Structure formats: structure tokens, C-alpha cells
Amino acid sequence: MLKVNNLSVNYGDTDVVSNLNLELAKDEILMLVGPTGCGKTTILQALAGLIPISSGDINLGQWRATPEKQIPPEKRHVGMVFQDFALFPHLTVEQNVAFRLADKQPADHWITLLGLDAFRQVKPSTLSGGQKQRVALARTLAHKPAFILLDEPLSNLDAALKDSLRWEIRDALKTAGVPAIWVTHDQEEALSVGDRVGILKNGKLEQLDTPETCFCEPASRFVARFLGEASFLPGELNPSDNSVKTALGTAPGIPVNNATGSVDLLVRPDDVSLILDDTGNGEIDWVRYEGCARFYAVKLDDGTLVKIRASHENKAEPGDRVKLVITTTHPLAVFQRQ
Ligand SMILES: Nc1ncnc2c1ncn2[C@@H]1O[C@H](COP(=O)(O)OP(=O)(O)OP(=O)(O)O)[C@@H](O)[C@H]1O
């Protein structure tokens, strides 16, 4: 089991990663997300042994790396998958996957499982981006690593391919039964593919939990905003049943950090419905057409901006009066009013 205890990494006087703690279950996929420069790649590099750590330790059972005792990458049993595929251009697919393997059977197994049989004898330059990434994954898995690090493996691929390949990668990791840490910039990918999601801010974990908990019960406004569109609706919390009374109706709440009294209710675009109504409670500020939906920003009469996604049939223009109502029945996160 991979365990990281109080890991910190410095570049000069700057703490880039601070006191990171995490533990990966046997075949768990942990997605790491966070704004640019928050330390995601640095964490992967530290786990792989590519850069020294400043404090704490990384423990896999067979080895334990500390600032005093560095374990080189080749002794860590780590597999890495990068966004640029990192394949050998002069070798065929088969040779790439079986590179330095005494027993070629695992290479055959993963070539077949990842649908690469037809490409065994071709060079990487003739493959599409998605095929190259499958080869890179097959090579990594064929070497039977103890854990895998994926650094934005889909960022060089187009949207349609990303969507299918992310599931192929997840399935392959689960079939191999190997734990993985997967860095992504894509919130949807993090929420849908990960068993757990870690949200980083300035080198520190803001929250580490299941996708649903991070999305529905974010530990901070930062996490709430980072994982999707978030509007904060002023309201009053009723301590007897944790319901929150707002201008758009009363909703069940989950107080974060013991929020009480005057609070802000986190509403996502699908928690609210919109009705065209001259006597409504707000006015369309702007609208974006998304094909099957329209995404609206509505300025409420008290000045609060609420973002809402409605059916494309629901057509309103900036300046139109509308009525917003909270329609969701599940509890919404509640933050102390700032
Ligand atoms: N070799 C280095 N020397 C000094 N500072 C570095 C070095 N590598 C990275 N940094 C700094 O460390 C911080 C974290 O960088 P890192 O690449 O880990 O971020 P990231 O979250 O992966 O970013 P991105 O999402 O843009 O890839 C950044 O402020 C970066 O400028």
C-alpha cells in the first residue's frame, strides 16, 4: 500500500508541497486536481523519485523514501503515463510495450486487452493520439508496477476521444488491480473516473474524499468553485432542522465548519429552475447556448448572481424578468456568510 506521510517539497525557500498525507487502497484511483502551479506535477515527481523531498516520507512497504534516504526511480516499482506518450519512435508497438521485459506474456496480454493487436508491427508515428496513449498504458501495465502515476494522460487528445479513453484507462487499471494517482485539469474527468478526488491549493490538500462528497459537501468555497459552477445564495439557517430560508425558497442544508445564523447556500446550476415571469425575482444577465441546454446568469433583485442550466426550449434573453425557485430536494452545502 502506498502511504505518504507529511510530505513537503521545497524549491529553494519556497514550499511547493506542504504536509501532504495520503494512503492509496489496493486498486484505488485517486484523481489530483487544482489550479495551475498548485504542485500536482511536483507531487508525482516526488513520488516517482525524480526530485528530492524536503520532509516526511513515502512508503510502499518494500521501500521507504525520506529526505535522508532517497530511493531511485528504478527501485520504486512505479509506472508512469505522461501526456506526451513518451514512446520510443524507432521501435514497433510490440517492442515498445515489451521493452526490457524478459517474459513477453504480459506485453501480449495488454496489447490484446487494449485493442492494439492490429498495430503490433507499426511504429508510433503512424498511430493516432489515442492509440499512442493505449500503447503507453500497455507498456506501463506490462511491467507490473506497484503503483502508477498518470500526468494528464488525456490532455493532448480531442474531447470525444478523451471521453471514451478515460473509461478504457480506468477499466485497465482496475483489471490490473494497481493503485494510481491521476493528475487532471478536467473536473468532470476527476469526478467521474476517480474513486477519490484530492483538491490541491497552494501545495496543500483542501479536501480528499469521494467525488460525490467533494462535489456536494465541499470543505471550502474554493473546492465548491473548483469542482463546478457555484452560486452562493444568502439565507438564514434554522438550527433545529438545518433548513435554509432564501429568496428562492427553503432548502435542506449541510452546514460546513459549523456555519450558523446568516449563511450562504451553495447552489449548482441544476439545483434551481427558471420560469419566465414578469413579476419574478430576477433578470437575465447573460445567456450561453449549449445545444441541449441554455446556461443563464440571473441577477436577483438583491444583486446576487445565480447561474442556472435550463432546457434549450426555455428561451430567455438578457433583460427578461424571470422567477428562480430552488427545486432540488437533496441537502445543499451551507457556508458562513463572509
Ligand atoms: N524546477 C523548479 N524550480 C523552481 N520552481 C519550480 C520548479 N518546478 C516547478 N516549480 C514551481 O513549483 C510550483 C508547482 O509546480 P507544478 O508544476 O508542480 O504545478 P502544477 O500544479 O503541476 O501546475 P500545472 O497545472 O500548470 O501543470 C509552481 O509555482 C512552479 O513554478
UniProtKB/TrEMBL annotation:
Keywords: ATP-binding, Cell membrane, Ion transport, Iron, Iron transport, Membrane, Nucleotide-binding, Transport. One of its GO terms (cellular component) is ATP-binding cassette (ABC) transporter complex. InterPro entries: AAA+_ATPase, ABC_SmlMolc_Importer, ABC_transporter-like_ATP-bd, ABC_transporter-like_CS, ABC_transpr_FbpC, Mo/tungstate-bd_C_term_dom, P-loop_NTPase, Transp-assoc_OB_typ2. It comes from the Bacteria. Residues 2-227 form the ABC transporter domain. GO terms for molecular function: ABC-type ferric iron transporter activity; ATP binding; ATP hydrolysis activity. CDD domains: ABC_Carb_Solutes_like. GO terms for biological process: quaternary ammonium group transport. This is Iron(III) transport system ATP-binding protein.
